[in-house]
Amino acid sequence: MSRSILCGLFFSIFLVGINNAQVKAPAPYGPVPSKNQMRWQEMEYYAFVHFSLNTYTDQSWGYGNEDVKLFNPENLDCRQWARICKQAGMKGIIITAKHHCGFCLWPSKYTEYSVKNAPWKNGKGDIVREMADACKEYGLKLGIYLSPWDRNHPDYGKPEYITYFRNQLTELLTNYGPIFEVWFDGANGGSGYYGGANENRKIDRTTYYDWSNTYKMIRKLQPNIVIWNDGGDRGDLRWVGTEAGFVGETNWSLLNATGEVSWNMLHYGLEDGNAWVPAEVNTSIRPEWFYHPSENERVKTVPHLMETYYNSIGRNGSLLLNFPIDTRGLIHGNDEKAALAFGDAVKNAFAVNLALKRKATASNVRGNAKQFAAVMAIDGNKNTYWATDDNLKQASLTIDFGKPTKFNRFLVQEYIRLGQRVKSFTVEAWVDGNWKELAKATTVGYKRILRFPAVTATKVRFNITDAKSCPVISNIGIYNAPQILTPPSIIRNQNGEINIIPADKESELYYTMDGSVPTLKSKKYTGSIATKGKVQISAMAYEPASRKSSPVTHEKFDIPRKSWKLIGINDEKANAILDGDPSTAWHQSKDKKMPVDLVIDLGKEETLSGFRYLPDQNIWNPGIISNYEFYISNDNAEWKLADSGEFSNIKNNPLWQVKSFSPVKARYIKLRALRNIDGNDEIGYAEVDVITK
Ligand code: FUL
Asked: What's the DSSP call for residue 116?
């Protein structure tokens, strides 16, 4: 090569270099995450562990008078918890240092209601310490749940309690090393033991806790922490308005720094919010947060957990998945199995990024500069990004696989350090010489994952159809996730007929009724199964084409409700309460005033040992009972109280409520609603059932 050509080449490389350096990165648009929020966001997936006196009383919320002597786990092993979380792909663990009952898992100086008075380790134990050590050993971060509501403390509701609360926080935030997140639940149901007062205490959650001074203290003690708060002042993270494991498809990581937060704002964020408050999706691996032996067969299946994954991490949220610690002090084997299988399923789904380092072109590249080129979105480096010229609100990026490639997932990430910008986008594939739309969606944020039926194509086009400001995309991934079969659902109607309903019409269904796990040799389901008396049933779906089986659904049914009658109700629709279908509900007419009674004739005398209530399952439908009395009678005239109490946490987690009492014979039952969660007179029921001996 001649000297002059070489000189020219160097000169032009030099020029391009200068040009590139001169093209400025986009300026941040709107609120952006703090360093702590960014560090937290990149964790994506971490655990909750719920463990307290409730574990030994089979309760969801302790009242605050439970005996500390009940707390004696025989095999408590925080290293087991940490090992499972680590193997499952989680990055940290948040422990319920104190739940609403006030019992402390660490030997707090400020109360006697803690492990220091429990038989466990002769009062010398400290679970928060063991958790901190185990997290350190397994390379996990530690988080703290400290319930602001304390049903044990005599001062709860008075100003003195705030000092107590801050003293406890100080202990937790100074003695256990770095804490990545602190969790303040908003629940404060009113009633409690309160040092023996046994009364209702009301606080104004927006003023009582004086959060702003508490926050200052927290940030001083733990400068790298993020604060989750559902109880008043805006923290660093927000709740998503449900504990069922999903955030809105549209999910802005923004809220307003002050002012009321509606359910919609929690669930979808606020497009024009003036503060960065990203979403954390919290849900449990079982229906409830604390351990209940009756839920051992109700651990969520891999398809269920994958659904949660796509609806949380795949929708610009983080996933906080709870393990109820069992009475031994361990994560139950069924939960471990499910969590590890879920971790593997996530790994398998995203094992091969088909877009990585392929060819990519864009409709516009910021200043034509290399550092903002399309390939920066598929270079496997989260710190580089594709960006367009300022003020462009539409742009597209095309990835060329170079050969026909099969895929069913599209993942995209914005470089959120510069703000959340994308308002809507589509994904297309080049199939048979045409662009075919595969999916259409709204926001992106830190991470968005779209699912669609597998397609084979040579090229993929990502079209941003609207944005607040020029798009800044740090990563695109394309994957071919293995298919996972969803287990069927099982319901029994009022006549006692069992129906097994597949999630996917193509699959065959197999079932057993003796408690064994169904196989392809079990009975094949061909239509309703007539049953009498108490039954159990286990069913699975099987897809002949892929030869895949689903996980197994187990259901247990008590006596059929064939001869049951609702008394004093002249509305046919009320039969929704007895139809066995959780998706149908009936509401008592609004002119009724609390207490509201539902009376049922069981048709004949039965030996009852409990009852079950399922509130209306449509999200945020009114009429969810929070406090009840349950009466029995033999003649529908003279009634005896069999049980009374609260349905703890039913507002956030409106699941089947199961209550037991000493066996008693009766033909008539009366569920009396004393209060609902909204403090008005409406009452709704999806189902009411009994438990017989
Ligand atoms: C809820 C609490 O009331 C539950 O008991 C649980 O701790 C959950 C994580 O938050 O609102």
From this structure: G
How far is CA 647 from each of CA 14, 488, 590, 661, 676, rounded to the nearest angstrom?
A: 71, 28, 22, 15, 10
What is the rounded CA–CA span in Å between residue 642 and residue 665? 11
282 close to 320: Cβ distance less than 8 angstroms: yes
CA distance 301 to 486: 9
- Ligand 1: residue of 289, 323, 646, 650 to mutate (most ligand atoms within 8 A of CB) is 289
Distance in angstroms (rounded) separating the CA atoms of residues 667 and 625: 23
How buried is residue 619: exposed, middle or buried, by Cβ count under 10 Å (0-12/13-18/19+)? exposed
Q: Which residues of 363-394 are buried (b: 16+ CB within 10 A; e: fewer)?
A: ebbbbebebbbbbbbbbeeeebbbbbeeebbe
Whole-model pTM: value is 0.93
Q: Distance between alpha carbon 635 and the CA centroid of its chain, in Å? A: 45
Task: Compute the distance between CA of residue 577 and CA of residue 409 in angstroms, rounded to an integer.
Answer: 40
Domain ranges of the chain: 44-348, 359-479, 489-557, 565-692
Domains 359-479 and 565-692 share a fold: yes
Question: Which three-class secondary structure state does DSSP give residue 302?
Answer: helix
Q: Do strands 553-557 and 596-614 pair parallel, antiparallel, or not at all (unpaired)?
A: unpaired
- 8 Å CB contact between 144 and 49: no
Condensed to tens digits (0 to 9), the pLDDT of residues 500-513 reads: 999 988 899 999 99
Q: Which atom of ligand 1 is nearest to the CA of 183?
A: 9
Fold annotation for 489-557: Immunoglobulin-like (2.60.40)
What would the pLDDT profile of 354-413 be if each residue is shown by its tens digit? 999 999 999 999 999 999 999 999 999 999 999 999 989 999 999 999 999 999 999 999
Residue minimizing CA distance to atom 9 of ligand 1: 289
Superfamily of domain covering 44-348:
Glycosidases (3.20.20.80)
d(CA 48, CA 638): 47
What single DSSP character describes residue 656? Answer: -
| Cα distance between residue 182 and residue 427, in whole Å | 38
Question: 359-479, what's its fold?
Answer: Jelly Rolls (2.60.120)
Kindly give the distance from the C-alpha atom of residue 96 to the centroid of ligand 1, in angstroms, as a whole number.
10
- Residue whose CA is closest, atom 7 of ligand 1? 289
Spatial contact of 551 and 484, defined as CB atoms under 8 Å apart: no
User: Per CATH, which fold does 565-692 belong to?
Assistant: Jelly Rolls (2.60.120)
Please give all residues whose beta carbon lies within 6 A of any atom in ligand 1, as ranges. 60-61, 185, 187, 282, 289, 649, 652
- Token look-up 């598929």 returns 378
